[in-house]
Hints:
Layout: E1 6-8, H1 10-23, E2 33-39, E3 42-47, H2 59-76, E4 79-81
Amino acid sequence: MQTHTVAISSDALLIEANKVIRQHEDYLQGMIATEVEQKGEVLVFRGEFFLDEQGLPTVKTTAVFNMFKHLAHLFSDKYHLQK
């Protein structure tokens, strides 16, 4: 884990992440991060992926995946989850 990152609770990080999501130009109604976990030095975000009735990805799925990837890049250099 990087030593220059700041410890943050998962709840506080999700609040901050969801603010970023709502203000992002690629925001879609219903896009929300509901979970975050630490995988090595990377913060991994999860939430609704907009799957269809058969459980297959929809057009919105790519946008959500890209948003969660954006959050990982944005926050992994700043924070690590508190233990």
